[in-house]
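Below is our example:

___
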Amino acid sequence: MPKNNQVLPKNSWSSNTAWFLCFVLIGCLAVRTVFVHVFPDERIKRQSLSQYWEQVPVSASRGDIRDRNGQALALSVPSVSFYIDPENWLPENADELGPFFGADASGKFKKKLPGKFHWVMRKVPRDIAKQVIEKKIPGLFTIRENRRMYPHSELASHVIGFCDIDNFGLSGIEREWNNALFSPPQNRFFVRDAKRNLFDIIGSNAGMLDTGAGSVKLTLDSKIQQIVEWKLREGAEKYEAEWGAGVCVNPRTGEIYAMASYPPLDLNDRSNFNDSKKLRNNVTGRVYEPGSTFKPIILGIAREMGVVSDNFHFTCTKKIEIADGVVRDVAAHGEVTLEGLLVKSCNTGMAFIGNNKEMTPHDIWGMLRQFGFGVKSGVELSGEEEGLLRNPDEWLGVTRANVAIGQGLAVTPLQLAMGISAIANGGELLKPYIVEEVKNSKGEIIHQGQRRVRNAVLNPKTAIWLRRALYKTVEEGTGRAARVNGIPVAGKTGTAQLAASGVYVKGRYASSFIGFWPYEKPEYLLLIVLGEPKGKYYGGEIAAPIFKAVVDEMLQLSFLAKTRDN
């Protein structure tokens, strides 16, 4: 320790100086480093641009959807996506985008853009993409992606559904079986060489990206589907209906051969996806009051409960007062038998039975639930409605009578089709299915559709009696317009007034016909519904002829197939 006024040794002074110089040097290096990074030399900027890279996720291949005969309904096909490299982009080139991608795209890119990468338009069909590429617009580049394509556009569109721009399922089968069909996007890496040319380092020009997604095979028959769609559309347009539905099933197995909805939906035109009317699958996603097509169900329940017998007779008047309401008929049919209630579609007779004290609201409600009303059918489609079947404690006044004529409750067309199928097959309510088989990416079957009984709802004798009564309804009664030469058809017409805000509106009807054939051993069941037609509205006048037209075409199709086989 030096004393006061004592001089430090020379070597100690030199050591402090050295440390000071080190700190100054380190400080200068730090300042220079910050300066170089914050304010780089122009030569460094140019060099860094030659080391450009970007990671972009692009759509891989999605699994196929096919009908029961292997006909392709949804495929993944190669397409071209366009993007802009801001470094090479000149805003004045934006006008050249307009003719191909629209005014919005042209306006969006009329400015200097930040970053490295901007999508212009994705999944452009090859014919249009070729025209754009031939323009050689500076700064506009391409990536190969896979686009979801529907070969038949509108065919079974409400069943198939659609995907978003990245091939993720949003509705229908595409959504319900997305886990099997979807392949996660693959990343593409783009680099720029010293000449500032962009390259895909995993080779985007090699073709489709395929990660081996699974596949779905439906129970639909494309030929039957096409017939039902054509005839439903013709009828809906002829009578200016707001909506329409058609469903054809095998009543013995629950397989769905056709499921059609009107208005039609073109899956290849994404602008349609903003129209809620076109998007709705009316067979599973719309509820309506079934009207007289519901009478066979109620009559079957009444017979099962012993409320009526074959010797039942009723004087059918034009109206009948029940509790706090009035049930009306088209005409006074006079004295009718139990069978005649269906053949002549007598409202007052059915209302009388529905109001019978031996059939309590809880009894009827419980049986209707057994028939599948008020609950989802379980078909392999998203967006299915469960219908409207109010709690029996709310069945006051004229409610039971209304339910007996198919009013005061709401069903989906598929629910009604399966309910009447129970009559056609001998008394079993089946679970409908539209998916025959699903395979994973390894080709292994992970789901297989099959016949499943939900409930035994009718005695076989009751089912036989109802089939005969429905056959006479077509031969002699309100369903005569559905008669088909060469094959016995059983069926029932329906005309139901529709309500708005809890009040029935004059002029708003749902017109329908449901039938099956051959009536003794049914192989097919078909339901046709037209919602809110203009002019004529009775089911026997407008829906029954559509049914007949479909059956005629199907018989012709079957005849041609047998001719080819022979």
